[in-house]
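step: validate -> pass
step: tokenize input -> pass
step: predict -> running
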Amino acid sequence: MASFAKDTQVKLPRPTRVKNKTPAPLQITAEQLLTEARERQESQILPPQQNITDSTELSDYRLRLRKESVWERALARDYKNHALWLKYADFEMKNKFLNSARNVWDRAVTVLPRVDQFWYKYIHMEEMLGNIYGARDTFERWMKWSPDQQGWLSFINFELRYQETARARDVYERFVLSHPKPSSYIQYAKFEAKGGEVARARDVYERAVKNLGDDEDLFVAFAEFEERCNEVERARVIYKFGLDRVGRGEELYRKFVAFEKQYGDKEGIDDVIVGRRRVEYEEQVRKSPLNYDAWFDYVRLEEEEASSVGDKERVREVYERAIANVPPANEKRYWRRYIYLWINYALYEEIEAEDVERARQVYRECLKLVPHASFSFAKIWLLAAQFEIRQLNLKGCRKLLGNAIGIAPNKDKIFKKYIEMELQLGEIDRCRRLYERYLVWSPDNCYVWCKFAEFESSLEEIERARGIFELAVSQTTLDLPELVWKGYIDFEMSQGEVERTRALYERLLERTKHYKVWVSFAKYEAGEQDEDEEEDGIERKQECIRRTRAVFDRAYVYYKDVTPELKEERAKLLEDWFNMEVGFGMLGDVSIVESKLPKKLKKRKAITGEDGSVEYVEYTDYLFPEELQASNLKILEAAYRWKKQKVDAV
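step: predict -> pass
step: emit ->
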């Protein structure tokens, strides 16, 4: 309780202790204190009295009073409040204080010049009061701030209301400089056209096209203006120029088609369609310069147009623009479509334009451009060479093909065509030299060896052909050795060299024991005397059959003893042997083969997939007679052991 009283006790200030309690010699009364305070108080400042003698002093006096008014105090506090200015000026106008209202508007547009409503209200007030010059001055002040289009158009309409055409034209000139837009120029031109000033209107449109250019609405308005002036050709030119400049202008194209239907003919409509397609292709190649299909379509369009109009330069221009878009990388896949631009260009110059020198130059520039160190195109070399042949320039053709062989990494097509050309010209020695160079460059190419030998054989150079085949089969590596051996064997067969042919088969069997080689050898032996109709023909046929069976028997023994795992090849061999015995007729003996034929067995084997799943697949297995006999013996042995166990158990 004592603690609560202590906390709630009011603490009074500590009294000041007076050390000297003796009375002062001079005593001051309360009256003296009040009198001294009044004497020291400053006197009140009152406004001076004024005598107003004229209207100017009266206006100044009223201005000071307004500044002290509520409106002025509000503006001093928030001068950016638009509504406050509007209500203040409206208040002055309703009370017919016109100069005061004018003063408010003047201050408003000075402080906030970007508020268009102030200018409109200010100008409207001056115009309603008949102060045209004041309104014009206000417009001029406003235009210095470059307002929007509506502000300029309001100024123009103001001048036109008072028949000030020249002033309106001057405002339009400043308007298009302040707002260089198609709509500004179109409004200016319509103003001149409405006033009958055709030349001035045309000049405005021409300035707009020069300064602005690619605007669809501008070209439509210009063409329609010329159409209204009965200048049909001018309008047509403007439409075409606009389509070339604008690109994909739907409205412009639609208007042009309607115009041509009304004033043009079939050719004019075709021109419109061509122009439209031209614009579309321009748009495509602008967006994707490496889109060679678009360039092909564009060039085709210009070639078709040039065939009727004869404008070859336009076709050349498109070709030049197309071939200027070189693929970005030295990889053949990027160049495959591009190279055909050059080919088509050269063919156009030769066939359509009939300019031989330009065609030759196109081929030359193309061959310079292709990066032959990385890849080449045999097609362009051959086309250039064929072009020279058509120009009866055989020396130039050979020079081109010689360079191609030395430069191009892929020479196969070039060698083949070069040899073919020289062969047609009857240049045998040149063909031989080309074949030799071909083999030096590609010694493992079996096609070349066979063609070279075939070439010599066609010239009745049998020993040369045989020597070429011998060189071919002696090569350590060949891409298709079976092709060379077959060609060599067929060559000897065509020459009737039976022993040489047999010797070739034997040499081939030393290298490979393939099933097809055995069968081919056997068929050769069987067919050697098929057409012999002499008296001893039967004996010779029997000899052939004997040789045939000997070949098959050698093959059968090889597959049986050396490669028993090749069951399928042995089965095919026996099947061919059996069919041949049947084909021998009365001289054949199928029993020789029947005892060797296997039994076909359908079996299943498990195949494990990558995901671990097991799948069973059927396959054909072959069980040959010796295997069947061995299997039977195993069964008998197992039965004997079982019986012996039974006897021992008893």
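step: describe -> Residues 537-562 form the longest helix (26 residues).
step: cleanup -> pass
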